[in-house]
Every structure is written in C-alpha cells, then in structure tokens.
Amino acid sequence: MSAIYEKVALIGLGLIAGSMAHAIRRMDSSVHIAGSARSAETRDIAREIGLCDSVYETSAQAVADADLVVLAVPVGAMEAVAKEIAPHLKPGAVVTDVGSVKAAVISAVAPHIPEGVHFIPAHPLAGTEHSGPRSGFATLFDNRWCLLVPTEGTEPAETDRLARFWRGLGANVDVMEPEHHDLVLAVTSHAPHLIAYTMVGVADDLRRVTDSEVIKYSAAGFRDFTRIAASDPTMWRDVFLNNKAATLEILGRFTEELFALQRAIRTEDGDMLHDYFTRTRAIRRGIIEAGQDTDAPNFGRAPASSAVNPPE
Ligand code: NAP
Questions:
Q1: Yes or no: domain 7-176 corresponds to CATH 3.30.200.20
Q2: What are phi and psi of 117, to 5 degrees?
Q3: Given the CA of residue 238, which atom of ligand 1 is nearest to it?
C-alpha cells in the first residue's frame, strides 16, 4: 500500500512538528520526512536525534517535491514562511499548518498559496508546556482531536486525505469553520491560559509577603496553573494577538462571572456557590467521559514537570 503522502516537509521543528515526525514513523516508515528550522542549533539537534530523513537550512529547500507541507512555526511567523515557500511548492501539493488560531492564519497564508496547490489549515488539540526539537513524542496526538478548517474551494478528496493522515497519527478528526474554531478555542484554551498566566503573576507579586510558601504549598491547586503558565511565551503572545476578538469576548464573560461569585462570597450566598460548583463538577465529569482526561488521582499526571496533554 502506498503512503498517504510520500514526502512530508515539516517547517519548524519544535514540539508539534517533532511529535508529527515520531508519529509519522510509527504510522509508515516509508514516508520521507524533510525538515527545516530557523536556528542552526535546532537543525543540529534534529540531525543528532534523527528526527527527519533530511534537514535543510531553508524552508524553500525543504518543500521541494513534498506532497504535504506542514507549517509548524508560531502563528505570527506563518506569513513570512508561506511567502518564502510559495515559488518552490510542487503542483498538486497540500499545504497545511498546525497553528492554534485559524482565521488570522488563513488571512496571512492563503494569498500566497499558488494556483494548483491545496491549502487546508488544521489544528491538533494536543500539547505540553515543553517546546523545541527534543520535546516531541509519538503518542502526543493519540485520541486527541485534530480540527481541519478547509478554505473555500478546497477539494473534499484532499480534505479526506489529510483527515486520513491525521487519523494515522492517532488523532480523531473534525471539520470546522475558522471563526467558530477561534471562539471554541478561546473558551477551551486561550482564556484559560491567560487566567493561568494572571494567577501565577498574582502569586509572584505576593511572594514577597509569603516567602517561599507559594512554592512549598503549591499542590493546593496553584501548581496546575503554573504548568499551563510555563507554556512557550512566543507561541502564546502570537495566539492572543491573532485571536483578539474571541479572547476578549470570553474574558468579558469571565469577568462578569467572577463578579457574580465575588458577590456571592461577600453576601455569604452559600446556595449560589454550591450550585455553581455542582454545575462545574459535572463539566469535569463530561470531559473524563469523553476520553479527554483521566479520573486517576492527581488527574493521572506525574509531578508537574512531566505532565502531558494539558488543554492545548
Ligand atoms: P516550538 O516547540 O516552540 O517550535 C517552534 C518552531 O518554530 C521552532 O523550530 C522554531 O525554530 C520555529 N520558529 C520560531 N519562530 C520562528 C520564526 N519567526 N520564523 C521561522 N521559524 C520560527 O513550538 P510548537 O509548540 O511546536 O508550536 C508550533 C505551532 O503549533 C504554533 O503555531 C502553535 O500555535 C501550534 N500549536 C502548539 C501547541 C502546543 O501546545 N505547544 C498545540 C497545538 C498547536 P527554532 O527552534 O530554530 O527557534
């Protein structure tokens, strides 16, 4: 049986591209994986650990003859990469990306895609707080969702082929509209990350008052915020700058709810608090039933440093 794509070019060699490389090997060892990264250090590490079959200095070199090109760089860098690779893409090739935001990436990349090349944006909902070429692993996408966001005029057969590829990497696949994707992700990922960053910032301000107690007693709940807040600063800066409207909409709603809870505490409205927490507990149960986390003690996570699969 021939490979779904015989040659795959990974542009950017961090957590997501690295995990894709491992998962591609697991799926089909006949696929040729070409890769390129911005820094010589990342390229050297990729060669040392055998992440790709060939590693190139420029993305233009890596995409030559590739059947599938994956843009796996921060959202804010997608346009420059698209511009660079455009003249070197093979006719009939598929270009996809793994960016955490979709509408802004489509506006930035689509105008550069030449006639005869298919552009099918995607977003695997899987990640860890680690980054770089050593952080990837083959099972990252197992039983996680990958959302495909085909652009206008995309041939359904090409979307189906990309869906088959992601299923081969272990993911479940759904198709979504870009604006809807950005709103859903603002709720499930972007706003929670901002809240985690804020909470850790508040704790850091308080550190002077509490000495080392914030760290020492962190298992009381704070620790889970710090894991999310350890995520890559460049990636997250770009996510917020490129999903501005949806994130601000969700943060507005969050602020209203926070005020309602604040008021319930002040007025000692125990019923309100109890009802609220009962509702949220049911949501947690729903996530476990959907197979998107585990019910094991400590959420099934090893001590914070080796945790995997937080909400992307
Ligand atoms: P990562 O581990 O930090 O790797 C990013 C890669 O992009 C590195 O190879 C880096 O090169 C390269 N890069 C950074 N800035 C660049 C620029 N300005 N121009 C060209 N290349 C650049 O990141 P990642 O976690 O794999 O994220 C990659 C993409 O996946 C992002 O768009 C992110 O939104 C999305 N995503 C991330 C997660 C997650 O949880 N991490 C989940 C789903 C989707 P050097 O190493 O040479 O600096």
A1: no
A2: -110, 140
A3: 34
